[in-house]
Amino acid sequence: MSDLFPPFAPDPDEPKRRLFKPIPLRLLVPNLITLLALCLGLTAIRLAIEERLELAIFAIAVAAVLDGLDGRVARLLKGTSRFGAELDSLSDFVNFGVAPPMLLYVFILHDMRSLGWIAALVFAIAAALRLARFNVMLDDPNRPEWQKQFFVGMAAPAGAVTVMLPLYLNFVGIPGGGLPAPVVGVYVVFIAFLMVSRIPTFSGKTFGSRVPRELVLPLFVLVVMFAALFVSFTFEVLAVSTLLYLGALPFGFMRYKALEKADRLEKSAVRANSPKAPPAADGSPPAV
Question: How deeply is 65 buried, as exposed, middle or buried, from its count of CB atoms within 10 A (0-12, 13-18, 19+)?
Fold first, then answer.
């Protein structure tokens, strides 16, 4: 029996086998940005419970900036992955579907008791549905290229920043944001409707891919000016930006309809100019 199991001495120079395949750093960086945004969203919920609403708003605003960066960084580093897309959606639900209505409930919606909580729930559910629809549309291969300039419905980060308008107005100096609790509740439900609607809104994904040389320096000045204003007059900038965004929604809808009409006319022209098959010898129409 000793010949069946001879002694074996391992080769000391043999390289150690890895149990797992190493992951490139370029795949990890976008996910780390997403996790940092998730930490900010969870911290915003804690700050809301502690009624430190100003810091909670700032945390959500920074999370929205990081949410816009992680996808761009992933495409820049060629580190996009299905795992990253799913992680981003889960993070967005916490940051933009749960944290903002929690802030509003602590701020004023609790005055409506159960109705205020229902308004907060409606917003959270609308954010979840909107993110689920967005993930499904990513896999649509037949979507025209021009439609990538638009979101279907209001994006979750935009909905989160927009729905907190009563908070901005309050910190600007208007007590209670100038709005009673029932009006705030209706406003929250209205923003939730915009998120799950089919109304097209500008995505901004195609902006900034190419910048004309003569606009580089003015762009730097505008970015620095906006950052300085945001730091010095945070809630004023957020309130004005929200009102401008809401006012721009009809223009995005009209632009979408114009591009849709042009695309339909182009397809009709292509079909009209395409060569037709000759009729058969017996005079019967060509087979389709």
Answer: exposed
From residue 163, alpha-carbon distances to 37, 102, 131 in Å are: 19, 11, 17
- Full-model pTM: 0.80
Render pLDDT for 147-173 as a digit per residue (tens, 0 to 9).
Answer: 777 888 899 999 999 999 999 998 888
Given 1.10.510.10, 3.40.50.700, 1.20.120.1760, 3.40.50.1010, which CATH number is that of 25-209+216-265? 1.20.120.1760
Question: Does the pLDDT of residue 88 top 80, yes or no?
Answer: yes
CA-to-CA separations, 170 to 50, 167, 175, 178, 179, in angstroms, rounded: 18, 5, 5, 7, 9
In terms of Cα–Cα distance, which of 68, 69, 75 is closest to 26? 75
Q: Exposed, middle or buried by CB within 10 Å (0-12, 13-18, 19+), for 19?
A: exposed
Tokens of 202: 């500008």
By C-alpha distance, which of 72, 66, 253 is closest to 153?
253
Q: How far apart are CA 93 and CA 38, in angstroms?
A: 9
The gap between the terminal CA atoms of the chain, to the nearest Å, is: 77
Least confident of 7-11, 59-63, 145-149: 7-11
Which of 10-24, 31-45, 135-149, 258-272 shows the highest mean pLDDT? 31-45
Whole-number pLDDT of residue 97: 94
Of 186, 190, 188, 168, residue with least CA distance to 178: 168
